[in-house]
Amino acid sequence: MLDSRVVRTLTRYLIARFVQIFVVATIVATTSVTVIELLLGFDRVLAFGDGLRALIEYLALRLASEYASYLLPLAAFLGAFSTAALSAYANEWIALRAGGVPLWRFATPLLGCAVAVAAFTAGFHETVVVEARQEWNRQRDGDANIRFREGSFWYQRGGRIYRVLEADRESRTLREVRIFERDERGRLERSITADRIEILDNQRWRFIDAVFRDFDPSDPTRPVHIEQVASRTLEIVDPRDSALINADPSALPLVALNRFIESKEAKGVATATQRALLYGRIADWLAIIPLVAIAAALGLGVERSRSLAQGAAWATSALAGYYALRNVGFVLTAEGVLGPATSPVLLLAALSACAALALARAPR
Asked: What is the 3-state secondary structure (H, E, C) of 122-154?
């Protein structure tokens, strides 16, 4: 029977090594992404603002909103692989097996670290990442005031208030739109209801199947002038209103996103895209656990090959395969081939099966 003190020492040793490598990998990956972002997005940096403070704010928003969700799982994978690979390469795993330490005892601390990283990633995403993404969207869209509620999104700038059911960025189309125009005193001057709006450019919008209602704020008793048109192109006063096309539900926290989806479903509106976003986000967090298990098994495989480079190549291939399957699933879901929950479930099942198989084939 193993001495419990030895087991506790082994657990602390593995966790300490994992944490050290995880922190180093996070710093190195963040630094690399920062350099790439500066090189490839230098024009965006200049447009964001002048001075060191603007540069730091730009990088903080970009790293938090776009890259953090990828860097943390990557660092966890590298931490697990390196911890196991170094133990195998230094013959520590052979010594542990000779002392009666089973594979599950070695893998448990790493899986515990994976659970902790997954929980931290979820919490970090639901607080820092979504807030950074919302702030980045506001900066990008000229401080656009976009709010999601009741299954639609609302937007206000000056005297105009928009309510839009859906926005399609690729086709630059807004669907089921209501526009309210007010005077300086907040009184309603005109309302527009349109089945669809095609944003031709920043200032020309084509209204399809629209109803225009004109009011006289100074004379509430005056009859409302109503005009129904099949198509009309208008000049939009403020070109910044085109920010509507960038309305992004992915910037919502999980609870708010689920509430937004339920509101749309209550109106009978299809929510496959939003459901895929919701399930995919949860799957990304859960995927960290089987990824760490796969990384640990590949790391222990270094004992057979006696080559860290070969083990790293297999680990890189496994990570690339995961992201390839993830992207394929996203495309198939977007095309309607798979249901919103099907792709995340299949991906997690495939990862779990690969993890079980990799651990079964690990040296023991």
From this structure: HHHHHHHHHHHHHHHHHHHCCCCEEEEECCEEE
